[in-house]
Amino acid sequence: MVEAIISGALLGLLMASVFVSGGALIITQYITPDSSVIKFFNSRRRPTFVVLLLIGIIYMLWSVVGIIHGAAFVLIDKINSLNGLGSPNLIFTLLTLILPGFVILIIAYTKKPALLKTLPIILIFVGIFGWMMPYTLN
User: In 3-state terms, what secondary structure has residue 17?
Assistant: First the structure.
């Protein structure tokens, strides 16, 4: 279980780095000097501190998500460890595919142009938590 928590936290940090860098590439296309986001950060005394605080929170949240996935993998692996979909644990991979599937549907329904920009991040999430975690922990 300790290995799963450590592995989950490390994979969560990997996902956080993808999320922060990919998110920055997506967000910078929409930010103009007159946007409310720029005005919000400029109204603060230390905009750099606010940005770094947000990035730190993102890294902590993704490591918690990774820890939860690691613990869930251990519990599901004890119950059922069938192989399938190129993964050592079919049930865990299927459960991991549910959330990105809903996210893709929501983004496709609301903002179709944003789907192509967010799809690589979503697919990396599936790869890290759906396949890399089971192979790391087996």
Answer: helix
